[in-house]
Design goal:
Helix content: 25-40%
Distance between the termini: 35 Å
Radius of gyration: 13 Å
Order of helices and strands: EHEHEH
Structural class: alpha/beta
Strand order of the largest sheet: 2-1-3
Number of strands: 3
Length: 98
């Protein structure tokens, strides 16, 4: 499995999907990412690659753990699986957007 992460700066940004501190996307050393997924293989692969790129990464294997980490970690970006048992990814997104 190969994970490619492409970050591209554009002139047209949709404020509903762009993090409030978009400039940090281009400076990995100052960006914190939270990845939430119930599949360990995907979570570990994503975490490994993001760390290799220099990002500060935390992971959670359930929606509730992700919400708890979100409150303490204050990530710049959250990557979340939509289909998870218990709290779905959509439930997580609804919770952290409040």
């Amino acid at each position: 499995m190969q994970i490619n992460i492409i970050i591209k700066k554009t002139n047209h940004l949709d404020s509903t999907i762009v993090p409030h501190n978009y400039h940090n996307l281009l400076n990995p050393k100052s960006m914190k990412i939270l990845a939430i997924d119930d599949q360990q293989l995907i979570l570990m692969s994503l975490e490994k690659r993001l760390i290799e790129l220099g990002y500060d990464v935390k992971t959670a294997d359930t929606g509730q753990k992700g919400i708890d980490i979100f409150k303490q970690f204050s990530p710049d970006l959250v990557i979340v699986d939509i289909n998870m048992p218990g709290l779905s990814g959509l439930d997580v997104v609804k919770h952290i957007r409040i």
